[in-house]
Amino acid sequence: MKKYWSELAKTLRPYEPGEQPQDREYLKLNTNENPFPPSGLVLDRIKESVSDSLRLYPDPNSNKLKGVIANYYKIEKENVFVGNGSDEVLAFSFLAFFENRTAISFPEITYSFYPVYCNIFQIEYRTFRLDYDFSIDIDEIYVNSGGIIFPNPNAPTGIYLEISEIEVILTRFPEIVVVIDEAYIDFGGVSCIELTKTYQNLLVVQTFSKSRSLAGLRVGFAIGHTSLIQALNTVKNSFNSYPLDSIATDGAIAAIEDKDYFSHCCRQIVESREFLMEELILLSFMVLPSKANFLFIKHEKMDAFMLFSKLKENGILVRHFRQPVVNEFLRVTVGKKEEMILLVKCIKLIFEAHHV
Hints:
Elements: H1 7-11, E1 27-28, H2 40-49, H3 63-73, E2 80-83, H4 85-98, E3 104-107, H5 113-121, E4 125-128, E5 148-151, H6 163-172, E6 178-181, E7 202-207, E8 220-224, H7 226-237, H8 246-257, H9 259-282, E9 285-287, E10 294-299, H10 304-313, E11 316-317, E12 319-320, E13 330-333, H11 337-353
Helix pairs in contact: 2-8, 3-8, 4-5, 4-7, 9-11
């Protein structure tokens, strides 16, 4: 019953996360989670955080975490903003930079939370076409955009846009904010953070959920010019002055400090990704080139939804998107190599059963 719903609530179409069924044990390759646990240093630090101090509010500015992030990326603490996962940071960015402006631009195939934010904040948007190979063509970006946002690597395609191309965008659109969503940057791409020292209109958003195995803690951050960070803080403090709890803050700091473990996990995932790509190509899959911790794949002889369903029957979850253009693709999270071997074996058995 929607009797008491606001008119806005009635019109919303929420973001749909990857399913997480509870009926049995699954190999989860549908939510781009890291297959490796958090580092031991993170777990130890979190245990230390569970103490009598939990009766106190956390630092509303997360100054210690900002300082650690700033030191890691060789920037100033004033250029860092932190929030409850990168999704919250992105939501604040839409409010801080895009509201009441000309229609913003993002790719026609991209992170499906962007139109959700536009809907809830009543921001107009236009999507620009991708090239034939699903790469971003910067010449397709709407010339009168009120703002630009896209993931790099893009999601769900995994395709990476070179920094030189992003710099062209920043130069071409100096009067609007360009948000680069780098949730997957640590799996093979080069971050745009260095460009924030030159371009005042660039905001780079990252997360601890993917490469640092902390999806359960909900920690995200943004880096940009001080004026952009001030706008984000204004929005944040008008909504929730304490977005990060003390446990999440301590865990995130430890994750940055454990550089060796971070590098090891990223390297292992990249190796698994390359292995899986080679195996799927041998099975006649079309596999888009990926710099993320997932692959976007398509098979000409088997319907994507059928393969998705058969894999689920066999205890393996992958992601299927229903929207046109990509409804014949599956997005597969890259796991440990032994998990990728299991996935390939399962696909082979499904193909044999269906004479593919």
